[in-house]
Design brief:
about 0% strand, extended
Length: about 60
C-alpha cells in the first residue's frame, strides 16, 4: 500500500450493512436479478461479460 501511496487502509466486515450498505445491496441485486434469472450455466468469460454489462446498467442507467 505504501508503494501505491495509500495512506490509510479501512477494513469492513462482510454482510454488515451498517458499514458497507452499498456493496451489500449491489451483491444482493446481482444475485437476485442476474444470476437467479440468467443462471450460471455459462463459461467464466461469458459470466464476466454479463456481470460487466449488468454493473454498467446498475451504475449509470438504472434508477435508484
Amino acid at each position: 500500500m505504501q508503494e501505491e501511496g495509500i495512506q490509510q487502509h479501512y477494513f469492513s466486515y462482510p454482510n454488515s450493512p451498517k458499514t458497507n450498505s452499498n456493496v451489500v445491496r449491489l451483491i444482493r441485486s446481482i444475485e437476485e436479478e442476474l444470476w437467479l434469472i440468467e443462471g450460471l450455466e455459462h463459461t467464466i468469460d461469458e459470466l464476466n461479460k454479463r456481470l460487466r454489462r449488468y454493473i454498467r446498467i446498475y451504475n449509470f442507467i438504472r434508477p435508484h
